[in-house]
Design brief:
The complex is a heterodimer of chains A (269) and B (594).
Chain A lengths: L5 E11 L11 E12 L4 E5 L6 H8 L7 E6 L2 E2 H6 L2 H7 E4 L13 H11 L5 H14 L16 H14 L4 E5 L7 H18 L2 E6 L2 H7 L2 E6 L2 E7 H6 L4 H9 L11
Helix pairs in contact in A: 4-5, 4-6, 5-6
Chain B lengths: L16 H7 L1 H18 L37 H37 L1 H16 L2 H12 L3 H28 L2 H8 L4 H37 L11 H8 L8 H28 L1 H4 L11 E2 L15 E11 L4 E12 L4 E6 L5 H7 L9 E10 L2 E2 L5 H7 L4 E4 L3 H4 L6 H10 L6 H14 L5 H4 L9 H13 L5 E5 L7 H18 L2 E6 L2 H7 L2 E6 L2 E7 H6 L4 H8 L9 H11 L4
Parallel strand pairs in B: 1-5, 4-9, 4-10, 7-8, 8-9
Antiparallel strand pairs in B: 2-3, 2-5, 5-6, 10-11
The chains are: A alpha/beta (269), B alpha/beta (594).
C-alpha cells in the first residue's frame, strides 16, 4: 500500500456542549483545534506538548476511543468513519495504543497469558495452538522470560509491565502504534531500555510510531520528525535535529529553554 | 534484564486469608457459632427429633427440661427443640436465597448502570431510588400483600427490597473500575462491551459483591423473621423462627420460654453472621488489609538498638547519622532505608536522587518521624537538627518542630491541599498552628506569603479553592505553607515531578531565590538529574536504601565514581543529542546481557 500510514486533515475535537436535562447548554472545551499531520510509513513522529495541549485527545481519536467533532482521518489508507462503522476490531487490527501507566492498563486479576490471548483470538482469529506459539514469540520479542505468561501484573515492575503492554499492542499485528507517554512513568535507566526496545521493534517489524511525550529529550532520541502542540494546535513540525537546533516558533523556544540539562550552567550562589 | 532494572518485589510473607480471619477473635467466634447452628440445621432430618408438626394438646406449654421435651412444648404441645431446628433450617434457606437473589439482580443493575452511564444509568438508578423511597418493611409488606402470604412470596419481597442496597454499592465500584485503563485496553484488543463487562469488570467487582452479601445475610434472616412474625411469611404448621415467635406472643407471660427460645436463636444466628461478615470484609478489603485505614500514630515508632548522643557540638543545620527505617510486616521487618548518613549546611541545597523504590521518600519522612506507624519503624540512627537529636525528643516536642523549623513540600499539591478549604485559609492555618496571632493577622500574613511565592493578585486568589488553581499555582501554595513559620530547613519531595517543564523551571527558580534570600537549607528529593544539576550544591545518590555516592554536584556529574551513578547519568538523554543517545546507551545494556 502506498500513501502515509496516518493522514489527518483539519481535525477538531470539542468536549461538552451537550444539553442537560433542562435544556441548558454545557460549556465547551476545544481540546484539538484543526490539526493536519501525516505519519509516514516506517516513521516515528514525535508529538510534544504540555498538559492540556490536546496530545492525548489526538491519540485517543486515532485509535477510535474518541470521535472527532470534525475533520478527516485516513488510517492505513482507510477513512476513520469506515473503521468506526466496522467496530473496534477493525481499529484494533490497523492501529494499536500503548498507555502511559502500564500497570493500570493490565487487568490485575488476569495472568499475562490471558491478557495476550484476547487480541490474538479476537483480532487475529488464531487457533489455540497458534496462539500459544505466538504468545511465546511476543514475550520473547519484548525480552521477557517465558514464565511471564503465567504471572499476574502486580508481580512486575513498571518497566517490565510496559514491555508486556507493548507485547499486547504487537499481538494485534497492526503496523501503526500510538504510544502515549510510554516511558514517562519509568525510571531513567528503564526508560532507556524501553526506548531501545521500541527502536529495535520498529526496525525489525517495519512499524510506524506516533510517539507522544512531554519530555523533549526523550522525543528527540527516538523520533524522525517532531510536532509541537500548544493549546490544541500544532505550532511547528520539523525533522528532529532541525527542530531542536533551530526552533522557529516562540513556544518551541520556551520549551527548549525550560528543559533541565545536565551541565550546571550557573553555579548557585 | 540488567542490574539496573528494579527486580520484581520479593514475595512478602503475607498471612493467608484464613489466618487473618482467625486472628480476628470476634469473627472466629462468629464463624464457629454460625457453623454449629448451620450444622444442626443441615442435620435436622437425621437427628432423633420428634415430628415438629404433631400437636399434643394435653402436654401443651411444658417448661424446658421436661421429660421427652428438652426445650418444652408450645401452645399446641409441639416439641420446641424440633421446631427450633427445623425453623432455623427454613430461616437460613430463605435468608441465603433472598441474599443470592438480591445480589444477582442488584449487582446486575449496578454493573450495567455503572458501565453504560448516561441515560441507562439515570433510568436504572431512578428506579432504584423509587424502591428506596418507600419505607423498607412497608414495601415488603405491600409486596407480600399483593402476592399473597407465604414463605416464597416473603422471600421475593425481601429480595426486592434489598436490591437497591446492592445496586448502589456495585454501581459505585463499577464506575471507578470502568475508568481504569485496562478497560480501554480490552476494547482495543477487540472485546465487545458485554465481554468487557463480564470478563474484565466483574472479576474486579466480585470481592465487593461477596463483602456486601456477607454483611446482609444476617439482615435478611431478621427480615424473614419479621414478616413471619406478622403472619405474612411461613404459614402454619410450618415452623420458622419468626412465626414461632409470633405464635408464642400470646403466652408471653404464662410461658415465656416459648417466645424466648426462638428469640435467642434469631439473636445468636444474626449476631454470628454479622460478626463473621465484618471479619470477611476486613480480610477481603485490600485497603483494610494493607492497614491504610488504621489510624497511624502521631510519630513513627522508634525502637533504636543503641541510644546515640542526644546533642552534638558545632553541628550544621541537619545531620543524619546511620538512619535505618523499615516496615514491620507482621513480625517480619522489611528494610527501606539502611543506615544512611548525610549532612546539610545552612543555606545549602542537597539533592537526594534515586530511582523508584530506592528509599528516598522514606528517608525524607523519617527525618520528622512522619512514616506511618504501623507499619513504619525506625530501628537505628539519629537525626540532629541544630545539634539536637529529634528522634530522642518527646512526641509533643517533635510535633512542634514540624512545620516550624523543618517543613515539607510534597509532589502533588492537589492531594496534600484540602479540597474544601480556600487556599488562603490553609496557608493561614499553617501560621496559626505555630504562632499565637489573631485570625485576621494570620490572613494578612498568608496573603503576604502568597505574594512572596509569586502568586499574582494574592488577595483575590486566596479565596480560590485548590481545584480552581493550576498545578504550578498549587505548588506555589504548597511552598507558601512550607514558608509560613520561617523554617530553617525545607524538605521538598519531588516538588516539580507533576508539573510541565516550563512551570517546573519557574518553581525551581522560586525555590532557588527563597533559599538565597532566607538562607534556607533545602533537601531536594528527585529522580531527575536535570533538576539536581540546576539547583543542588551537593548530591547524594541512593540505591536500595543506601547512599552509594555523595559529593559536590559538578564533580559527581562530571566524574561519577560508583557504577550505579555512572549508569544513571548515562541514561539521561541530553537535549540536542538526538538519536545518538540510543546508540550511546545500547552498549550499557548489551554488556549486561539484555
Amino acid at each position: 500500500m502506498t500513501g502515509p500510514a496516518v493522514q489527518m486533515r483539519d481535525l477538531v475535537k470539542t468536549f461538552g456542549g451537550g444539553r442537560g436535562l433542562f435544556g441548558r447548554e454545557a460549556s465547551t472545551v476545544q481540546a484539538v483545534r484543526g490539526i493536519s499531520l501525516d505519519l509516514k510509513r516506517g516513521e516515528t513522529l514525535g508529538v510534544v506538548g504540555e498538559s492540556g495541549s490536546g496530545k492525548s485527545t489526538l491519540a485517543r481519536m486515532l485509535v477510535g476511543l474518541e470521535k472527532p467533532s470534525s475533520g478527516t482521518m485516513l488510517i492505513d489508507g482507510r477513512p476513520w468513519e469506515d473503521l468506526a462503522r466496522s467496530g473496534t476490531r477493525a481499529f484494533g487490527r490497523t492501529i494499536q495504543y500503548v498507555f502511559q501507566d502500564p500497570v493500570a492498563s493490565l487487568n490485575p486479576r488476569k495472568t499475562i497469558g490471558e491478557i495476550l490471548d484476547v487480541p490474538l483470538k479476537l483480532l487475529c482469529g488464531y487457533e489455540n495452538t497458534k496462539r500459544r506459539a505466538r504468545k511465546r514469540e511476543l514475550v520473547d520479542a519484548v525480552q521477557m522470560p517465558l514464565d511471564t505468561l503465567e504471572r499476574y501484573p502486580h508481580e512486575f515492575s513498571g518497566g517490565q509491565a510496559q514491555r508486556i503492554a507493548i507485547a499486547r499492542a504487537l499481538a494485534a499485528e497492526a503496523s501503526i502504534l500510538v504510544l502515549d507517554e510510554p516511558v514517562s512513568a519509568l525510571d531513567v535507566s528503564v526508560q532507556a531500555q524501553v526506548l531501545l526496545l521500541l527502536q529495535d521493534l520498529r526496525n525489525s517489524l517495519g512499524l510506524s510510531y506516533l510517539f507522544i511525550s512531554h519530555d523533549l529529550a526523550v522525543v528527540e532520541s527516538i523520533s524522525d520528525r517532531v510536532a509541537v502542540m500548544y493549546l490544541g494546535e500544532v505550532v511547528e513540525v520539523a525533522p528532529a535535529a532541525q527542530l531542536f537546533a533551530a526552533p522557529q516558533h516562540e513556544y518551541t523556544r520556551t520549551l527548549i529553554a525550560s528543559a533541565p540539562r545536565l551541565e550546571t550552567a550557573e553555579s548557585p550562589a | 534484564m540488567t542490574g539496573l532494572t528494579v527486580s520484581p518485589s520479593v514475595p512478602r510473607k503475607r498471612r493467608s486469608n484464613w489466618q487473618l480471619l482467625m486472628a480476628n477473635r470476634l469473627a472466629a467466634a462468629g464463624l464457629f457459632l454460625f457453623g454449629f447452628i448451620a450444622l444442626l440445621a443441615i442435620l435436622a432430618p437425621v437427628l432423633p427429633l420428634p415430628n415438629p408438626d404433631i400437636t399434643d394438646q394435653p402436654n401443651r406449654l411444658l417448661p424446658p427440661l421436661s421429660d421427652g421435651h428438652l426445650l418444652g412444648t408450645d401452645h399446641l404441645g409441639r416439641d420446641i427443640l424440633a421446631r427450633l431446628i427445623w425453623g432455623t433450617q427454613i430461616s437460613l434457606i430463605v435468608g441465603i436465597s433472598a441474599t443470592a437473589l438480591a445480589a444477582i439482580f442488584g449487582s446486575l443493575i449496578g454493573l450495567v448502570a455503572g458501565y453504560m452511564r448516561g441515560a441507562t444509568d439515570t433510568v436504572l438508578m431512578r428506579f432504584v431510588d423509587m424502591l428506596m423511597a418507600f419505607p423498607y418493611i412497608l414495601l415488603a409488606i405491600a409486596i407480600v400483600a399483593a402476592l399473597g402470604p407465604g414463605l416464597l412470596n416473603a422471600l421475593y419481597a425481601i429480595a426486592i427490597v434489598n436490591i437497591p442496597f446492592f445496586a448502589r454499592n456495585i454501581r459505585g465500584v463499577t464506575v471507578s473500575v470502568r475508568n481504569r485503563e485496562f478497560v480501554e485496553a480490552a476494547r482495543l484488543s477487540g472485546k465487545s462491551h458485554p465481554a468487557i463487562l463480564f470478563t474484565e469488570v466483574l472479576p474486579n467487582v466480585l470481592p465487593v459483591i461477596v463483602i456486601t452479601m456477607s454483611t446482609t445475610v444476617g439482615w435478611m434472616i431478621l427480615e424473614t423473621a419479621g414478616l413471619s412474625f406478622l403472619g405474612l411469611g411461613a404459614q402454619p404448621p410450618t415452623a420458622d423462627l419468626g412465626s414461632m415467635l409470633g405464635q408464642a406472643r400470646a403466652q408471653l407471660f404464662t410461658a415465656p420460654h416459648a417466645s424466648i427460645i426462638p428469640g435467642v436463636m434469631i439473636f445468636a444466628l444474626v449476631m454470628s453472621i454479622n460478626l463473621l461478615g465484618d471479619g470477611v470484609r476486613d480480610v477481603l478489603d485490600p485497603r483494610l488489609r494493607s492497614g491504610a485505614l488504621d489510624r497511624p500514630m502521631a510519630v513513627t515508632k522508634i525502637r533504636r538498638k543503641a541510644k546515640p548522643a542526644p546533642t552534638i557540638e558545632n553541628a550544621p543545620s541537619l545531620v543524619v547519622e546511620h538512619l535505618t527505617t523499615g516496615f514491620d510486616d507482621g513480625g517480619h521487618l522489611t528494610p527501606a532505608v539502611k543506615g544512611i548518613s548525610f549532612r546539610l549546611d545552612k543555606g545549602e541545597c542537597l539533592g537526594l536522587i534515586g530511582e523508584s523504590g530506592s528509599g528516598k521518600s522514606v528517608t525524607a519522612l523519617s527525618l520528622m518521624g512522619l512514616v506511618a506507624s504501623p507499619p513504619g519503624l525506625i530501628t537505628d540512627g539519629a537525626v540532629y537538627i541544630d545539634g539536637r537529636d529529634v528522634l530522642g525528643l518527646r512526641e509533643q516536642e517533635l510535633i512542634a518542630l514540624r512545620g516550624a523549623r523543618v517543613s515539607y513540600v510534597f509532589q502533588d499539591p492537589l492531594t496534600t491541599l484540602h479540597p474544601l478549604y480556600r487556599v488562603g485559609e490553609q496557608v493561614a492555618e499553617a501560621i496559626l498552628a505555630h504562632q499565637a496571632v489573631g485570625k485576621s493577622a494570620a490572613k494578612t500574613r498568608a496573603i503576604a506569603l502568597m505574594e512572596t511565592v509569586g502568586i499574582r493578585d494574592a488577595a483575590e486568589r486566596s479565596r480560590a479553592y485548590p481545584h480552581e488553581l493550576s498545578g504550578g499555582q498549587r505548588q506555589r501554595i504548597g511552598i507558601a505553607m512550607a514558608l509560613a513559620n520561617d523554617p530553617d530547613i525545607i524538605i521538598a519531595d519531588e516538588p516539580t515531578t507533576a508539573l510541565d517543564v516550563t512551570v517546573q523551571a519557574r518553581i525551581l527558580d522560586l525555590l532557588q531565590n527563597l533559599r538565597r534570600e532566607r538562607g534556607l537549607a533545602l533537601l531536594l528529593i528527585t529522580h531527575d538529574f536535570g533538576v539536581v544539576a540546576q539547583v543542588c550544591d551537593r548530591v547524594a545518590v541512593m540505591k536500595n536504601g543506601e547512599i552509594v555516592e555523595q559529593g559536590v554536584t559538578d564533580t559527581i556529574l562530571r566524574d561519577p565514581q560508583h557504577d550505579y551513578t555512572k549508569r544513571l547519568i548515562a541514561c539521561v538523554p541530553e537535549l540536542g543529542e538526538g538519536q545518538r543517545f540510543l546508540a550511546r546507551v545500547r552498549p550499557l545494556f548489551e554488556e549486561a546481557g539484555a
